[in-house]
Amino acid sequence: MVNAEESFKQSLNEMKEFLTTRKKLSELAAKSNVSLRTVYNTFDAKEFNDMKGRQIDVYRNAIEMINEINSLQKQSTDALNKIL
Fold first, then answer.
1. pLDDT attached to residue 6
2. What's the structural domain count of the chain?
């Protein structure tokens, strides 16, 4: 059985992988106004309570970016349907 800490760490790893494959980590750093090192440190947290200050901002911005990326296909379909 996966405990909460392992589940959180797995979630962070999946988020990092998602953004890395799309080459968005530098953009996340810029959006969060932090160094790339802080972004990596955020994804290395063992649990949410370990995150402090800017790492919480990075985490929130990462969630927003992932949601935005995942919604692009639907947005483009909707936009094309308005044209046609």
1. 86
2. 1
Whole-number pLDDT of residue 81: 83
Closest-CA residue to 11 (of 35, 53, 42, 36): 42
Q: pLDDT tier at 2 (50, 70, 90 boundaries)?
A: low
Give 24's contacts (C-beta < 8 A, 6+ positions apart): 65, 69
Sign of CA dihedral 64, 18, 31, 59: positive
- As a whole number, mean pLDDT of residues 21-33 equals 97
* Contact (CB, 8 A) for 39 and 25: yes
* Structure token digits, residue 34: 């932090």
